[in-house]
Design a protein that fits this description.
single chain, mainly alpha, elongated, Rna Polymerase Sigma Factor, Chain: A, 3 domains, about 240 residues
Length: about 240
């Protein structure tokens, strides 16, 4: 266990030490709030209070055996801020992207144009929309793979058969943690292992590599809105389990 994880566990049970721990990580909370909202945050704002309470919540619910406290607390802060943003934007249109477009059910050229326009219009005109924050967050993750969020338009599977194949690939990653860890560590899709485990043709895995990586990152991360765009993957998993 690293020092920070040990300190977090101590702060959970020692009130006096918790105050010291909270003070020590104020800059981390501010930084996480800034990264989540893409706005400069001061301690006089509601966002700061929500982020600070979320960090406190993370201390209370942290289990050292489940992994890094920093990663865990960042997830809790982001989740609480997303909830706050979502509440503020309830009066806005529900989604920035038609889930059908993301899933690749529309004509490719028309879907690309519509999707691009919706993304640009919404992210520019509605800065408080929670989907915008999720897109910005996943864009940073995908950038490490050399993938742009807008690349997903052209690489999303169109045919039902191809969608099922991509779903199998993503499920394989989710079910085999060592493959997911390898993908995240080396920023490469473990095509050979997925092909061996799923029998999905290598050609499909290579052609839809970017989509499979993005879907796996979204499903394994804290992206509740974006997850709805690829809900068919979990539906596919359930349908296979029920056979």
């Amino acid at each position: 266990m690293i020092d920070i994880d040990r300190d977090a566990a101590r702060a959970k049970v020692e009130g006096a030490y918790r105050e010291e721990f909270l003070l020590r990580f104020e800059s981390f909370v501010l930084k996480t709030a800034y990264k989540t909202t893409n706005q400069y945050i001061t301690k006089s704002e509601d966002v700061w209070s929500i982020a600070f309470l979320a960090f406190n919540e993370a201390i209370d619910s942290y289990d050292p055996e489940k992994g890094s406290f920093i990663s865990f607390s960042e997830m809790i802060i982001r989740r609480r801020l997303y909830d706050h943003i979502r509440r503020k934007s309830r009066q806005a249109p529900e989604l920035l992207v038609d889930p059908i477009s993301f899933n690749g059910e529309t004509d490719m050229e028309e879907g690309s144009t519509a999707l691009s326009r919706q993304v640009m219009d919404k992210t520019v005109t509605e800065p408080d929309d929670s989907t915008k924050w999720e897109i910005e967050a996943i864009s940073q993750v995908l950038d490490n793979y050399g993938i742009r969020f807008m690349d997903l338009i052209s690489v999303s599977p169109k045919a039902k058969k191809t969608k099922a194949a991509c779903a199998q690939a993503v499920i394989c990653l989710m079910d085999h943690s060592y493959l997911m860890e390898r993908m995240k560590s080396f920023k490469l899709l473990p095509i050979t292992e997925i092909e061996k485990n799923t029998k999905v043709p290598r050609k499909i895995l290579e052609r839809h590599r970017k989509y499979i990586i993005a879907a796996a990152e979204i499903l394994s991360g804290d992206y509740p809105v974006l997850r709805t765009y690829i809900a068919y993957i979990n539906l596919y998993r359930r349908s296979c389990n029920n056979k």
